[in-house]
Amino acid sequence: MMYQAMKKFSPSQKLITLGHQLKTTRLLMNQPKKPTNTGALATLVIVFFFWGFIAASNSIFIPFCKSHFQLNQFQSQLIGSAFYGAYFFGSLILFLLSNVLGFDIINKIGYKKGIIYGLWISVIGALLIIPSANANSFPAILASFFVVALGFHYNRLQPSHSLLHLVILLLVLIA
């Protein structure tokens, strides 16, 4: 199509047009590439996948602990209570600390550092599972699992911390 349009021009006009195209191409190639956040987005998607995977693994962990530690139904359900209770107690602690200190801790730390700190808390909890399993102690496993979930809570809290603070405030006022 470009060739058909070029037939209408004289040879000197064709050279001018080609020169203009080369100059435009050269200008476009010399422009620095704009930085993108594709790597950060991909990392966040992968991390969210693993958070969901571990949260969904509770249903696998409960029967394992029930048979390994010879737990009754109530004791085995403490695993889910420890995991999801960490979300509640983590929000409550963060809310109370933010009110006592007079500023929002999550906004002060920042989104990126908050996710990194949450991941480190989860890593510490995961490492605590090793001595807990070696000691064959179910309460220690619950405490370690609570720490893992507390780290997940701070990671998931980053995008929606204002809503969680509002929910906790309402719960505190109702109680």
List the helices and strands and how they pair.
Layout lengths: L1 H5 L4 H20 L7 H19 L1 H11 L4 H29 L3 H5 L1 H24 L3 H37 L1
Notes on the protein architecture:
- The protein has helices spanning 2-6, 11-30, 38-56, 58-68, 73-101, 105-109, 111-134, 138-174.
- It is mostly helical and 175 residues long.
- It has a domain at 85-175.
- The model has no long low-confidence stretch (mean pLDDT 77).
Quick rundown:
The protein has 175 residues and is mainly α. The protein is built from eight helices and no strands.
Task: Describe this protein with a few key phrases.
175 residues, mainly alpha, 8 helices
Low-pLDDT windows of residues = none
Strand residue percentage: under 5%
User: What is the percent of helical residues?
Assistant: over 70%
Structural class: mainly alpha
Report how far apart the termini are: 75 Å
